[in-house]
Design a protein that fits this description.
Elements: H1 2-30, H2 42-58, H3 65-78, E1 85-87, H4 89-98, E2 102-105, E3 108-113, E4 116-122, H5 127-131, E5 138-142, E6 145-146, H6 152-159, E7 166-172, E8 180-185, E9 187-190, E10 194-200, E11 203-208, H7 215-229, E12 236-240, H8 249-259, E13 265-271, E14 278-281, E15 308-312, H9 319-329, E16 334-337, E17 345-353, E18 356-366, E19 382-384, E20 418-420, H10 428-437, H11 453-463
Parallel strand pairs: 11-12, 12-15, 15-16, 16-19, 19-20
Antiparallel strand pairs: 1-18, 2-9, 3-4, 4-5, 5-6, 5-7, 7-8, 10-11, 13-14, 13-18, 17-18
Helix pairs in contact: 1-2, 7-8, 8-9
Protein name: Carboxyl-terminal processing protease
GO molecular function: endopeptidase activity; serine-type peptidase activity
GO biological process, one term: proteolysis
Length: 478
């Protein structure tokens, strides 16, 4: 038996070494400046081969080589950070569909935390959003299947499916003594990337829910419509990026370019390979795909000068943070709201053939002034402390194995931030406990509605009206 294991191990080491050498030589052919090849970790490869051999010979059931190697690849990537992963044929296809803004499912942005699926944000106008699923909810069961121990991709496969089919989701929520059960019906998730309206004469509102292939073009159309409808001078524009989980990088550059001067730096990236070092500016070569017509050309000139407020919260991530950071650094917009999610890393899709790929973290994003977004996020100029959900929101820095900030010590707030509607620190726990009693049946806030308090504060800021003082506590001090 030991001879069989030894032979299997030697063969496997040879195969792995051959693959790694071929990859190294391919890399050398492409990168002339590489000075030396890193030596192969022979001892570690030998251990890997021994484990492989033991599983093949001693595991309770026979296991295919393909499954073992695929799981080993998964383990390598999952062990790096929360955003690197292996994409099989179905997952690669789902990724491509997701960027086009239409798929069958429930409408939840999720991540994996301690073996359980955790909700980053429900997507507006979807079954999950309408049912009242909230940021921070832990999904512990899908129908009769326990989620613990399942991969994130497998959990997503169970949640997605044909429209009009149902699924029962069991959720554990902070503040609730018993699990919550939601019976949801899957639907075609058509994400309307850009929503817009006139709040009142002279004041426009644009909401971006996700950055997709058509976001820049849809934004340009919204700007033309709003400025065309307004008969007088445009006095203010509110850009709402709350609960926007991000999306395509070129979409973020396009949105920034609509409001910034031509050629202004939007974002830059730093990584180990030359391809990971990029500077993206506000001009067509960085947001158009191919020889498409420049949809931002001919926008009303006032779009680049109208006073702006950008609304963010803990659900604003990735591309949203790039836009907010660029507008803030260029002093083009006041940023108002809560500290953002802090997802400031670049994932590159690297096809492997056979319609599979790996999603690999290759760089960090930096704002024009050199601020690393990763695990820190964007700090608003005006902080909204009336956001009772802020303490419960999941952020990048809460994820296991999250990538470090890279330049600065991770933190959640900088000094000197203006606060609106601030509350006594001693009341926070009592307020939170009181809110949790009513959280089960509370309807999700519709951003841009009459109940949107942060939107009202933004309008008051434009008009020079002081923010309303905080409500007094209804509990007396002992």
């Amino acid at each position: 038996m030991s001879n069989v294991i030894r032979k299997t191990g030697l063969i496997l080491i040879g195969v792995i070494a051959g693959i790694m050498l071929s990859l190294n030589f391919s890399a050398i052919a492409k990168k002339e400046n590489i000075e030396a090849i890193h030596p192969l970790p022979i001892e570690e490869l030998r251990t890997f081969a021994q484990v492989f051999g033991r599983i093949k010979s001693d595991y309770v059931e026979s296991v295919e080589d393909k499954k073992l190697i695929t799981e080993a690849i998964n383990g390598m990537l999952v062990g790096l950070d929360p955003h690197s992963s292996y994409l099989d044929k179905d997952e690669y296809k789902e990724l491509q569909i997701g960027t086009q803004g239409e798929f069958g499912g429930l409408g939840i942005q999720v991540t994996m935390e301690d073996g359980v699926v955790k909700v980053i944000s429900p997507i507006e106008d979807t079954p999950a959003f309408r049912a009242g699923i909230k940021t921070g909810d832990l999904i512990v069961k899908l129908d009769d299947t326990i989620v613990k121990g399942m991969s994130l991709n497998d959990a997503i496969k169970l949640m997605r499916g044909k429209p009009k089919t149902s699924i029962k989701i069991t959720i554990v929520r902070e503040g609730e003594t018993e699990p919550l059960i939601f019976n949801l019906v899957r639907d075609i998730i058509k994400i309307q990337s850009v929503k817009s309206k006139m709040l009142e004469p002279g004041y426009a509102y644009i909401r971006i829910t996700q950055f997709q292939e058509q976001t820049g073009e849809n934004l340009a159309q919204a700007i033309r419509t709003l400025f065309g409808e307004n008969k007088g001078e445009m006095k203010g524009l509110i850009l709402d990026l709350r609960n926007d989980p991000g999306g395509l990088l070129n979409g973020a550059v396009a949105v920034s370019a609509a409001f910034l001067p031509e050629n202004a730096l939007v974002v830059y990236t730093e990584g180990r390979s030359p391809d990971a070092k990029m500077k993206l500016h506000a001009n067509p070569e960085f947001y158009l795909r191919g020889p498409d017509k420049d949809y931002l050309k001919g926008l009303p000139s006032a779009a680049k000068t109208v006073p702006m407020i950008t609304l963010v919260n803990g659900g604003s991530a990735s591309a949203s943070e790039i836009v907010a950071g660029a507008l803030q650094d260029h002093k083009r917009s006041i940023v108002m709201g809560s500290q953002t999610f802090g997802k400031g890393s670049v994932q590159t899709i690297l096809p492997l053939g056979n319609n599979t790929a790996i999603k690999l973290t290759t760089a960090r994003y930096y704002t024009p002034n050199g601020q690393s977004i990763q695990a820190q996020g964007i700090t608003p100029d005006i902080l909204d402390e009336t956001d009772d959900n802020d303490d419960q929101r999941l952020r990048e820095s809460d994820l296991n194995r999250h990538l470090s900030n890279g330049k600065k010590t991770e933190k959640t707030m900088t000094s000197g931030t203006e606060k609106t509607g601030s509350k006594p620190a001693g009341d926070k726990k009592d307020k939170k406990d009181k809110k949790n009693k009513d959280t089960k049946n509370s309807a999700p806030l519709e951003f841009g509605s009459e109940e949107d308090q942060l939107l009202k504060q933004a309008m008051n800021y434009f008009k020079g009206i002081p923010s309303s003082p905080p409500e007094p506590s209804d509990e007396s001090d002992s």
